[in-house]
Specification:
Length: 148
């Protein structure tokens, strides 16, 4: 899915590029949030309507997907953001073939678990959630967050 929606890879200083001339994927959630804000701001400046809450939602989704890739997917291998129609598409790839899951908030002994809120947040705020296997291994999660 991500290959169909290529945009300029995001979130590294403009001087940081690899041998192919591409910027590396974000290494922390703050980089992903900044990339989403930058992409949306450019479209809003071009006259498209943008709701401040929607921008925050898109940043939160990008942050959660990036965090999950780092914590559970072996790291972010690719990241793209693109404003399309009335939404922003965020694609995050990682090294793991495991699908995201919703964990119960308590363990078998009834104790509350820390964390486990990221994937439910993504599913609640995003539309067109797609998880695709990548030919080289790993997966790509592609979502669209409405901007209006």
């Amino acid at each position: 899915m991500c290959e169909k929606h290529r945009t300029t890879p995001i979130a590294a200083p403009s001087s940081a590029v690899d041998r192919t001339g591409r910027r590396p994927p974000p290494c922390k959630p703050a980089d992903a949030r900044q990339a989403v804000e930058r992409a949306i701001t450019e479209c809003c400046l071009a006259g498209r309507p943008c709701d401040a809450h929607a921008v925050s939602d898109a940043q939160l989704v990008a942050s959660e997907l990036t965090t999950n890739a780092i914590l559970h997917g072996g790291g972010v291998t690719d990241f793209h953001v693109d404003v399309i129609g009335r939404g922003v598409r965020v694609c995050v790839s990682d090294r793991s073939d495991r699908l995201p899951v919703v964990r119960p908030p308590v363990d078998r002994q009834g104790r509350r678990r820390p964390g486990g809120h990221g994937w439910p947040i993504v599913c609640r705020l995003a539309r067109e959630v797609q998880v695709s296997d990548l030919p080289s291994g790993g997966k790509c999660i592609s979502v669209v967050v409405p901007l209006i």
